[in-house]
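Side project, low priority. Logging it here so it doesn't get lost.
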Amino acid sequence: MAWKKAEQIAHHYKLPSFEIFLKEMYLKQQLSTDEIAKRILKDTNVTITPRSLQRWTQKLNLSRSKSDARKIGILKGRVDYTPLRKPVKSKELRKGISLKLRYEILTRDNFKCVLCGTDAKNSILVVDHVVPVVQGGTNDISNLRILCQACNHGKKIYEKEK
C-alpha cells in the first residue's frame, strides 16, 4: 500500500499515523483485514486490499494468537464451532431415576422382567430405557421398563452388535 493512501486514511480519521488506526481496528475492535478494508472504502473511498493490510500488520508485529483469532471468528460467525465440540457422553445426559419412579415402574410391570418373566425372588431387577439415553431416550415412564440382569446384559450385547 502506498504511503499516500496511508496518510489519506490517517488524515480522514484525524490520527497522527496509519499505524495507530490499524492497531485500533485490528487489535482493539478485533476486525479482520477484510472488514477494515471495507470500512476504509466506505468511509474514505480509498481502495485498499486486505492482503496489503495483512502485510502492514506483519510489519508492525500486530498479531493474534490462533485461539484469539478462532474465538473472534466464532463470535462473528466466520468459523464453525461444531468440530471443536466434545461429544456428549451418556453420563452427562443421564439423570438419576428417583425411587418413587422406580417403584411405579416395578408395580406397573408386576415386579417381573418384561422379557423373560423372572421375578425379584430369582434375579436382580433393573430399570432399563427402551430408547437408550444416548439415542435421545428420556426418563419418561413410557420409556422405562423392568428387566432382569441377564436380559439387560443380553440387550446391551445385542445393541452393540447392531
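Brief comment: The mean pLDDT is 84.
Revisit when time allows.
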